[in-house]
Amino acid sequence: MEQLRRILSDLGSRLRRFMSGRYGTDQLNLALLVLYLVLSLLGSAASFFLFNLLALIVVILAFFRMLSFDHDRRARENQVFLEKTEPLLRRLRQLRLRLTDRQHRYYRCPCCKQMLRVPRGRGKITIICPRCRTSIERRS
Ligand SMILES: [Zn+2]
Known about the structure:
The chain is α+β, with helices and mostly antiparallel strands. The chain is 62% helix and 14% strand. Strand 1 and strand 2 form a beta hairpin. Helix 2 (27-46) runs antiparallel to helix 3. Bound molecules: zinc ion. Zinc ion (ZN) binds at residues 109, 111-112, 114, 129, 131-132, 134.
């Protein structure tokens, strides 16, 4: 038991030495690892070689980034990744809100596509879009 603890602590300090100065992980790497898992699951489920090859490329890329010493470049890559995925994440958050919100109904303005939120259970109401002033009649 004592010996196992010593071995683990030794491994831990070796790993810390090995990782010191290296970039480590970030949101882009997390996304790459998730992509790797999805691709390798698809690869083994469909026994399709291309998925396994892509999974291998993705995991090599993730390790390359994690072990890299070029912090500035890796941080810039992560920043670009966050900027590109922000609109998608915002839409997913909105969708989750709409699906879980029992107090409101959501409509889209037919004219400017603005999302309109109205309280539920008020019967038939007239909604005026705050952006383009188009008025629509809907059941709340
Ligand atoms: Zn509108």
